[in-house]
tRNA pseudouridine synthase D (Candidatus Tenderia electrophaga), 337 residues
Amino acid sequence: MPTTITLAHALGQPTLKGTVRATPEDFQVDEVLGFDPDGSGEHACLHIRKRGANTADVAKQLARLAGVKHMDVSYAGLKDRHAVTTQWFSVYLGNTPEPDWSQLENESVKILTATRHRRKLRRGTLKGNRFKLWLRELQGDTADLGQRLQTIAATGVPNYFGEQRFGYDNLEKAGAMFAGRIKVKDRNKRSIYLSAARAAIFNHVLSQRVAAGTWNCGLNGDVMMLAGSHSIFPVEQVDEDIERRIKEQDIHPTGPLWGRGALPSGAEVNTLERTCGAAHAVFCEGLERAGMRQERRALRLPLGELEWRLDGRDLWLAFFLLSGSYATAVLRELVSA
């Protein structure tokens, strides 16, 4: 059972090397909720800037300050610790008096906005994230860098799950859990291991299609996803209309997030996905036993609002990504690790 594979590059292996996150300020992420808090309700809604601070640790600090249980504090998504990030937290207060949130502030944490909302923030409810990044001390020829960036702006990049999903040993722990060698009672850890297993299978399928040059075009038997949604539909035969919609990024080919039930894909796409699944048989069987259901994820990741500037040997990038995607999927097409 392979746990990690070498993932193919859409634009070929980059020849440039560079330093990512030389300082936290070199990796800035601003969360975009996609809606405005209600301004009233039982949940405090806090917009917080963090520098070098872990999302879960800030949530625990909020719970202690408010005198509530950890489960009463929620957030829409995890953010990198080694970065400067802004994100929203909700705190269920009910009839509990609202604390002085400024007591939480220090050199790593700043309260930007404190308001109210009628509902708790749930994982994945955000629209996406805006990134501002510096790649420092580039080594190699930058002659084709502009062309790479223009291609990425036009076609997007393969929508790989990033290394954050796999952690240090999440795949090994997932395999051990599925094989019965370890018991995982912690629901959060169990969820992390399940997600890592699904991501490994998806990345394998996507890498095969990247290598074949079919990750951003339609194949007979594909399952398409409407842009900006999770709505999917099967395509038995690719026609001119489907090709046009893919080119216009109105729809995207998808790959499997493994679980119970039959794969919705057909023809050669189904064959490829079943072959990749067989290479991860322990993961597939474990995910099915765990009750996960077959879902789909877009193979292509479009970038919004892409800007760049080369300053000597340093590259500045800014772009917007929809929730659930990774900036590392963009960076790996520009610089080698």
Summary: The radius of gyration is 21 Å. The helical segments are 55-66, 145-155, 170-178, 187-212, 240-247, 267-279, 281-289, 328-331.
